[in-house]
Automatic annotation (TrEMBL):
Its EC number is 2.1.1.-. It comes from Winogradskyella pulchriflava. The lineage of its organism: Bacteria, Pseudomonadati, Bacteroidota, Flavobacteriia, Flavobacteriales. InterPro entries: Methyltransf_11, SAM-dependent_MTases_sf. It is an enzyme of class 2 (transferase). This is Class I SAM-dependent methyltransferase. It comes from the Bacteria. One of its GO terms (biological process) is methylation. Residues 58-154 form the Methyltransferase type domain.
Length: 266
């Protein structure tokens, strides 16, 4: 099995730099969030509904806005992230907002080494699985952390989007839909602030929908649904058009931008 430690270390260093830039960006709307606005988007709110009184594990939580948004809705939350700077800020926000979420700094694949409790809900969203070389250990960990009858929910950018290279400002098809080889990118700026001078150095992997679905089935989860949508809640790809409902689409939309999957541990 390939040792991916160096890749993870480079990604961690980049995400540590992103935390401060993102926390001050317009995209993350920190002042509005602190004043009570949710950071959650319509897909996940519709999918999970009333979470009051439920335990929720949020994987790859960045600096915890979504975790804390679920906490505000009455869930008992634990957030996990690779970035110690992200976890540090998440803990500060939790204290400032007088919430009861907990945060753990670890590689998401090592979650079961750090957390032994099981949850009603395991949640992850937007730009998460591309940081993982293999989804089988990821799915196994999700199954380990779910109660029987518990819900796993992911909303994520569609794998077709990751076939393109966006570094030059326009999409160029470059990568395989199911690419096994690691993809390295180095560029100035970040999706939340493209004019930032920080340099992002990132290693990632492409995972097609069949890999997502089959890894979860193999881990003992029953798929409730898999949906694909042309609309993205985030303006993070070139030349998107904002719709009246606040979502974003491509000018000549030929493929989906988002997928969501809900599964139950059986």
């Amino acid at each position: 099995m390939e040792d991916n430690t160096n890749y993870f270390e480079v990604n961690k260093a980049t995400w540590n730099k992103k935390v401060g830039v993102h926390a001050e960006s317009e995209m993350y709307k920190m002042d509005a969030f602190k004043a009570g606005a949710t950071s959650l988007m319509p897909y996940e709110l519709n999918a999970l509904g009333d979470v009051s009184g439920k335990s929720l594990l949020h994987l790859q939580c960045h600096f915890g806005q979504d975790t804390l948004s679920w906490s505000r809705m009455g869930a008992k939350c634990v957030g996990v992230d690779l970035s110690d700077e992200g976890v540090k800020l998440a803990k500060q926000l939790n204290a400032e907002l007088k919430l009861d979420a907990e945060f753990v700094c670890c590689n998401v694949l090592d979650t079961s080494k750090h957390i032994s409790e099981t949850f009603d809900i395991v949640f992850t969203s937007y730009g998460t699985i591309g940081w993982l070389p293999d989804l089988k250990p990821w799915a196994k960990m999700i199954s380990e952390r779910l109660k029987v009858g518990g819900t796993f929910y992911i909303v994520e950018f569609h794998p077709i989007l990751w076939m393109f290279d966006y570094v030059e400002g326009k999409p160029v098809m470059k990568h395989h839909y199911n690419q096994d080889e690691v993809i390295y990118e180095e560029y100035e700026g970040t999706y939340a602030n493209q004019s930032s001078k920080m340099v992002s150095k990132e290693y990632g992997w492409n995972h097609g929908l069949s890999e997502v679905v089959n890894s979860l089935i193999e881990a003992g989860l029953q798929i409730e649904y898999l949906n694909e949508y042309d609309e993205s809640p985030y303006d993070v790809f070139p030349d998107l058009i904002q719709l009246d409902n606040g979502m974003y689409k491509m000018k000549n939309q030929l493929f989906p931008m988002i997928f969501e999957l809900k599964a139950i541990k059986i």
